[in-house]
Amino acid sequence: QVQLMESGGGLVQPGGSLRLSCAASGSNFGSYAMGWYRRTPGNQRELVATIETDGRTNYVDSVKGRFTISRDNVKKTAYLQMSSLKPEDTGVYYCNAVSRPLSTRESWGQGTQVTVSS
């Protein structure tokens, strides 16, 4: 069981960058797949990026080449580095953790607001 706390959201101009952090407390962080989701004004919550326990990553097409998900198992933190931000990236970003190999546990962060506007 892990608890997630997100940080790093804020207001940024188009073309700018932000790094979101998701700090986990609890045990066995390395046994959780991590993901970032977002709810934007024009969409229901969508998957943005995932990183598996072995480091494999996936991204939604709209952020490929601009966003990078990573994890630090020593710090028990997942990150989402966002660059070349666009207004349509605006939304609430949520961190998610799913236990592996058994998907019996799932945790969510509270969400952090990202606003891309000039």
Describe the protein's topology.
Blueprint: E1 2-7, E2 10-12, E3 18-26, E4 32-39, E5 46-51, E6 57-59, E7 67-72, E8 77-82, E9 91-99, E10 106-108, E11 112-116
Parallel strand pairs: 2-11
Antiparallel strand pairs: 1-3, 3-8, 4-5, 4-9, 5-6, 7-8, 9-10, 9-11
Characterization of this structure:
With 118 residues, the chain is mostly beta strands. Strands 2, 4, 5, 6, 9, 10 and 11 form a seven-stranded mixed beta sheet that branches. A four-stranded antiparallel beta sheet has the order 1-3-8-7, with no helix packed on it. A hairpin with a 6-residue loop joins strand 9 (91-99) and strand 10. The mean pLDDT is 96. The termini are far apart. The protein is built from no helices and eleven strands.
What is the gist of this entry?
With 118 residues, this protein is mainly beta. The chain has strands at residues 2-7, 10-12, 18-26, 32-39, 46-51, 57-59, 67-72, 77-82, 91-99, 106-108, 112-116.
> What's the number of helices?
0
Poorly predicted sequence stretches spanning 5 or more consecutive residues: none
The amount of beta strand, in percent, is: over 45%
Mean model confidence by pLDDT? 96
Largest sheet: 7 strands, mixed
Shape: elongated
Q: If you compute it from the alpha carbons, what radius of gyration comes out, rounded to the nearest whole angstrom?
A: 14 Å
Q: What share of residues is helical? A: under 10%
Structural class: mainly beta
Total beta strands: 11
Q: What's the quaternary structure here? A: single chain
Q: What letter string, H or E per element, gives the SSE order?
A: EEEEEEEEEEE
State the separation between the terminal residues, measured CA to CA: 40 Å
